[in-house]
């Protein structure tokens, strides 16, 4: 079997992707607990399909680029959830996320196999399997890869760009610039953070001090910027230019840490508390990052980066460029920037590849000079290990033990948190309300109200910030999450939470990994009928008529066509010049 997989890497990658997708599909509905963003993105997808509007409520939604929402809309149409209850749509999109995680694992496996050039086919196959499983069992990927968020598609896009760039590195410059530029532009229209992976080949070229590849990297980023530009152009055409500038300015400020609106670095939050509370949940991810960081240092030392006579080989440069961007983005984000834990998933693939490179990688050499190989095609590498004899056996044993510990830790986290345990606190609260609270009775939300409007469709969900004001208006039931209060999410605050605890009676509570704890409190007698004048079912305003999704899709496809046509002409011209020079 191993020999067959060695000879058929495509089947190996497809099998690994399928296996990872299956692992993510298990108990997908009840773990993890769903987030407000999941409800928001699923609803935007429905608006795209049902009303051709890239909007939520009455305004255009330009916080993130549109491509993920277009894909979500198509997926919801295929699964028949464009008009069903929103929770059904969220569950449907989670299936798509699981499939995309399988793609990420398969692509990561392919990259790991490529960087192990110089080792035997069997070692490369084992490395691909280990890399895919490290992605699948990372605590961060298991948590956020199972959600209806943008990250699963964004991580898959960024990892794919890295693979394509590495495999095209010996192709003509024009081909590389056009193909990579189209991919980078498309990826950044999923989410701009894709650039922290997509720019890895350019950083690798800088580290190699290779002018040709620097030109390729810079050119592909410029082409990608031209493709991405259809997003601000679409916003400006539809009268949202000012809103776009304001939103992008805020995004840059959040990235740099100048403004804190979410994440562990909020002034009201505590990074230490968040780290200790979730350590076991993300422990397998932390372990992979630790080993991957050690690998990055080893590659840095071995690569000859600071030598005047040596330059990093292709594979070392890729690992350094990708690793510096991935780890650098991660460290800066948590030290100064937004510090959202879902951002960690962008570094999961590079950490997995670095782990494999450290545990299974040798030091390939040029078969003619005996020096470290550089700029050679894969078939020009000889298969050598790092050492011979007893030291090799010892190193192999240590590598196997470390890899086994990483995988067992990840598997234990997966079984404990996603197979045995169910993290469905929001649905548990909804079930209690349905069984014990009369329909239409108002309930005040904790955090973002839209999440609770999705979970409690039979009740009126209010969003008061002040307890006495809510009570005066006839609201006697209050949802409360200590995390919402600590971080001042939505309308919740520490003062509001204290008022609820001091004046209320706890009716129900259930744990939730994403919200820490979900509670339902009553202040005063629990009403058995809706408050006078209250409306039972929520009424939402029509989506914006000035955010046409079809128009953006047309502009995007037209941009791809124009850039592709111009690029093709440039490629043909370059090929003719090359042929004439050879002739």
From TrEMBL:
The keyword Protein biosynthesis does not apply. Keywords: Cell membrane, Glycosyltransferase, Membrane, Transferase, Transmembrane, Transmembrane helix. InterPro entries: LipidA_mod_glycosyltrf_83 (IPR050297), RgtA/B/C-like (IPR038731). It is a multi-pass membrane protein. Residues 90-231 form the Glycosyltransferase RgtA/B/C/D-like domain. GO terms for biological process: lipopolysaccharide biosynthetic process. It comes from the Bacteria. One of its GO terms (cellular component) is plasma membrane. It is found in: Cell membrane. Pfam families: PMT_2. Its main location: membrane. The chain crosses the membrane at residues 12-30, 93-111, 123-144, 177-207, 214-237, 286-305, 317-337, 398-420, 552-572. One of its GO terms (molecular function) is pentosyltransferase activity. This is Glycosyltransferase RgtA/B/C/D-like domain-containing protein. It comes from Nakamurella endophytica. The lineage of its organism: Bacteria, Bacillati, Actinomycetota, Actinomycetes, Nakamurellales.
């Amino acid at each position: 079997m191993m020999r067959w997989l060695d000879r058929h890497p495509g089947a190996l990658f497809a099998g690994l992707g399928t296996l990872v997708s299956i692992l993510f599909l298990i108990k997908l509905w009840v773990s993890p607990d769903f987030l407000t963003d999941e409800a928001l993105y699923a609803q935007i997808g429905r608006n795209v399909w049902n009303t051709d509007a890239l909007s939520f409520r009455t305004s255009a939604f330009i916080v993130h680029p549109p491509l993920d929402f277009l894909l979500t809309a198509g997926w919801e149409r295929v699964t028949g959830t464009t008009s069903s209850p929103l929770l059904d749509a969220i569950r449907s999109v989670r299936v798509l996320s699981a499939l995309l995680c399988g793609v990420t694992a398969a692509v990561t496996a392919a990259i790991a196999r490529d960087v192990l050039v110089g080792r035997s086919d069997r070692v490369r196959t084992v490395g691909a399997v280990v890399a895919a499983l490290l992605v699948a069992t990372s605590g961060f990927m298991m948590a956020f890869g199972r959600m209806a968020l943008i990250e699963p598609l964004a991580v898959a896009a960024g990892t794919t760009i890295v693979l394509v760039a590495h495999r095209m590195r010996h192709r003509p410059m024009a081909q590389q610039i056009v193909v990579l530029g189209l991919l980078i532009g498309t990826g950044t229209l999923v989410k701009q953070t894709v650039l922290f992976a997509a720019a890895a080949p350019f950083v690798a070229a800088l580290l190699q001090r290779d002018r040709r590849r620097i030109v390729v990297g810079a050119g592909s980023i410029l082409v990608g910027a031209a493709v991405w530009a259809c997003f601000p152009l679409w916003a400006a055409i539809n009268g949202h230019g000012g809103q776009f500038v304001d939103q992008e300015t805020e995004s840059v400020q959040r990235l740099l840490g100048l403004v804190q609106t979410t994440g562990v670095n909020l002034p009201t939050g505590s990074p230490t508390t968040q780290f200790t509370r979730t350590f076991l949940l993300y422990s397998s991810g932390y372990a992979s990052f630790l080993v991957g960081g050690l690998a990055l240092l080893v590659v840095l030392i071995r690569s000859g980066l600071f030598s005047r006579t040596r330059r990093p080989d292709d594979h070392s440069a890729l690992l350094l460029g990708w690793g510096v961007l991935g780890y650098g983005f991660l460290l800066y984000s948590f030290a100064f920037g937004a510090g959202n834990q879902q951002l960690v998933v962008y570094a999961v693939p590079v950490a997995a590849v670095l782990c494999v490179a450290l545990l299974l990688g040798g030091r390939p050499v040029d078969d003619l000079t005996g020096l470290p190989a550089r700029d050679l095609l894969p078939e020009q590498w000889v298969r050598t290990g790092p050492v011979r004899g007893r030291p090799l056996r010892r190193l192999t044993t240590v590598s196997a033990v470390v890899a086994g510990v990483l995988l067992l830790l990840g598997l234990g986290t997966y079984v404990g948190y996603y197979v045995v345990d169910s993290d469905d606190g929001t649905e548990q609260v909804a079930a209690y309300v349905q069984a014990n609270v009369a329909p239409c009775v108002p309930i005040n939300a904790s955090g973002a109200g839209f999440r609770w409007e999705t979970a409690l469709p039979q009740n009126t969900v209010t969003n008061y910030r002040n307890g006495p004001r809510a009570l005066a208006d006839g609201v006697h039931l209050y949802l409360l999450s200590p995390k919402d209060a600590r971080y001042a999410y939505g309308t919740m605050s520490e003062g509001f939470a204290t008022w609820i605890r001091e004046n209320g009676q706890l009716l129900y509570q259930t744990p939730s990994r994403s919200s820490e704890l979900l509670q339902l409190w009553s202040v005063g007698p629990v009403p058995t009928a809706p408050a006078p004048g209250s409306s039972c079912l929520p009424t939402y305003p029509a989506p914006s008529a000035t955010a046409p999704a079809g128009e953006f899709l047309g502009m995007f496809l037209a941009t791809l066509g124009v850039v592709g046509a111009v690029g093709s002409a440039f490629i043909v011209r370059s090929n003719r010049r090359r042929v004439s020079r050879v002739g």
